[in-house]
């Protein structure tokens, strides 16, 4: 069993999302363990909660960045992110079960499209306290979730994208939900999305380390982290595994032969089949590379990236941005708050992170 907080799922999860148009949807789950298909609201398709499938498809011969796949190096099961980095490994199983099947984890997730940005949602989940903090205080309570972003985005038909992402262990403040860095390929309206990245999320992962995550959306409805609709391919690594802190790794999403394949470092990890969208999502139209914080207030102190502002030469980076069978990458950069900012280094690389100082007070208020 993973280290995630099963008690949250036992209590049930309800996430109501308000988009730019004011539309509200709700995803409910209630079960003693990971929700079974029958416990998910009708707004989520049956495909969304199907068990992880055994791979039958064959990935492209080359990874998105042109290398031939080679087996990833694994650290000891249960190692934390610093131990993974010290071992020079690419990842470590997050638990000692030996299973290569990721577990479905339900928790808040933000979303950005050309037409709208999800800035606020609602959840019944109470984010766990940091391990050393003990029992959650009044600051950690169910209710509103505020999503804040620093992002690059670009329109254009493409088979996918890849980039070098800095992996870090940013501080997730008590009462907040997650901090993450990811790449995403989607339709222009944001209804259908495939996401890949790393997150620090104590609800999903049960600790404060960075972990690999995958996620998908269908018809504007969120599914779950790591297992919903997912087909596992790699025999070395699965979504949810612990990643090394303080390094950069290549991550890629590529459509090939009826599947959206996911690559990490030197391997194809698995895929989301086109059947999840009834064949309506076979090319990307809008591509993104970004940092995201989900917090319980609009001015959080949770760190994005590695916690440094983009003016620092050692701040986190999204680098070597590439579009697969698509336009030349020239993303536009934007943010939704001064607290998390960005700085261009080239057409394909930018630094990002925070929280940074309020320009009016010269303080980050943390």
Automatic annotation (TrEMBL):
InterPro entries, per the entry: Glutamic_endopeptidase (IPR053168), Neprosin (IPR004314), TAT_signal (IPR006311)
A matching Pfam family: Neprosin
Chain ranges of the Neprosin PEP catalytic domain: 139-366
Span list, region Disordered: 73-101
Domain of life: Bacteria
Bias-annotated ranges (Low complexity): 86-99
Protein name: Neprosin PEP catalytic domain-containing protein
Species in which this protein is naturally found: Winogradskya consettensis
Taxonomic placement: Bacteria, Bacillati, Actinomycetota, Actinomycetes, Micromonosporales
